[in-house]
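I hope you will forgive my troubling you with a question about protein structure. The record follows directly beneath this note:
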Amino acid sequence: MFAFMLLASFFTRAGVDPSVSYRLSGPYIVRNLQVFLVHGPDRVPRQRYLTLGEAMKTGKVVVHETGNVQKLRVENHAGLPVSIQSGDIVKGGRQDRVISLDLIVPPGKGGIPLDAFCVESGRWSKRGDEQASRFASNAYMLSSRGLRLAAKQNRKQGEVWANVASQQARLNENVRKLSGKAGADVRANASASSLQLSMENDDLQELVRTYTGALEGILDGRPDVIGFAFTLDGEANNAEVYGRSDLFRALWPKLLHAAAVEAIAAYRGPEPTAPVVLLDERMKAVRGVTAMLAGALNAAPAVRDVAERTRLITREAGSLLLFETRDRAQAGAWIHRNHVHKPAAAAGKHRASSRRHTTPTQPAPLDGFQQYRAPRGRPTVLQLAPHNDDPRLRQRTNQQFVPLHNDRAGQAQGHR
């Protein structure tokens, strides 16, 4: 994989926070997936959180079936609060479900309502050795932008089911293409409509590992990473940023798996003719990610108190969305920010990627850029001022990250 380092730095101020600095490194590229790491300080240094997956695995958290498709109940027997993520899939019960909204479950609390949607339309009974009254595990998350928006923003069960079926169909097509197995089918015999069982499919998992195997170690030696963003074929898609680096690291395997599955479903091929991603596509990805992270921070907030400790703030600016989760027990500090770039109205009509049919050794320069070849052994660092129409490429002689852009003009009033 062609190694390429870049950094975009910008500062924002939101609500009770002091000035917040994000720094980006990347992209780390596998096939059609470009991953950026988000670096920054911990926002909640004195409060640790468990994830739903690790808490369910140890039996410290139990998620109960209620008989209501869109409402579950959770109890926390751990000594720490549990951070449940919108998009977490819980397996078992009468139907596999996806959690709709972020929730912070305080320690020692039980009977807390948990908003959910069904991601398995064909079952309403016990499956195999699982219990119908409770859920067995949380190993995966929603793995498409359409699914995430259906569950989190639009909150429509029919739309969730339609997106599950659509993703299964796209995965079938591309798993067959990429694995060379004409009869591959991610839909399980035990329950063809189950997204969870599709995620467990052996052929899909083998392809997922071609992505995750190359990317899972990119956090090593980078203790200040608090999140990531990704693009597909250079188009900005999603970013997950957390108030603690250890919370992000605990969620990283699930987040990376979901991004890999989405990349497989979106794969258009064929492979590039050389292990090079062209400069214009890299810049497209950088610009898209920078805009996605910053674009909605100043939009008017919609505030919802979901539970005792959980306040959700949503901001929308055109095609950009920001879902922010705040812990009311931590002076209203945010612990999770989900930045989303919504697809354009015509996004369903896939356009061919610019890099598929271009000679890799002769990239067409983007407006305002110069082609630059670093000396052998020197890393190339892309410097980008997100609101500057004349960004520049410069050579760096070391691998230190360099701040590039201070934007203190945009400040939004937050809520306690």
